[in-house]
Amino acid sequence: MIALLQDELVKKRGWLKESDLLDYFAVAQCTPGIIAINTATMAGYEIKGKTGSAIATFAVVLPSLIIITLIAAVLQNYINNEYVVHAFNGIRAAVVAIIANVTVALWKKNITSVAAGTIFFVALLLLTVFSFSPIWTIISGCLAGLFWQMFLLKKMQKRGEK
Amino acid sequence: MIYFLLFYEFFLIGLMAIGGGLVTIPFLVDLSGTRGWFSLGELTDMIAVSESTPGPIGVNMATFVGYKTADILGGIVATFGLTLPSFLILMIFSKYVMKYKNCVTFQNILFGIRPAALALILYAGIVIAKLSITNWKIACFTVGFFVLQYFFKKSPILYIALGAVVGIVFRL
Prior knowledge:
The structure holds 2 protein chains of 2 kinds.
Chain A: H1 2-12, H2 18-30, H3 35-78, H4 82-110, H5 114-128, H6 134-161
Chain B: H1 2-16, H2 24-35, H3 40-52, H4 57-100, H5 104-132, H6 136-152, H7 156-169
């Protein structure tokens, strides 16, 4: 995605600076919502204000809307076909493998400290044992981040006192 | 009022899914249980289609689930619901976010959210794995695909295509 945006918006059209685009991408990853939509909204805003933002967001969603609707409509008619059933059983094996690989990659990227690991296991415990919903799990993560901040501040104060 | 419910659920997902399209999956696993609009098996197939078509996976999932639940208009409403929070938040706050993106509190909140989001993905993955791996043959191929992708890092589409071929050939 980022490579495509660089090509189109920075090199071809000259609408954005490369550093801007990287900033948008960084912000898009840590604000709520789908990263591609967030990036499009910000890039559109920078180029042509609110209208630009609305148009860019609409445009980034439209291909999915059309393609997926078509596929879903066609698939409905064949979902009981013997070959389609076998194909999807195989595909499900691939989907599980893909999710497992994403999990491993995210683990390597994000669980780099004991604190992060603790938050991970507590979140998993909340999900499995206490049947937390995804929304409450994310909110708990948010609170854990705030507590971590308070802990770090206290630590710094103590060091200051010494 | 199915359209209103679809909009509401996807608006929530758009608001809470921080860090990419895959984070939408645990929310959808949860939705399958609470609303019963689609089964987990259907969800797994939707993930496969969304991963192997162009476009952000989160948006693809919203369109697919919406269509499955309430036809074409359902797809449009769900996609709109997913998009709206991002759009509103960034329209109003993007200037502040830009200014404070290096702010310590903001970084620390993310430090807490990321492991929680990862736990969500792992949990959803386990739910989907339990459902998909119904016999030894499928288990072997799952491990095989995992190892192949881990070492060769090709795009997901390749493995989904491979999965379809293997499924037909070995009558999984």
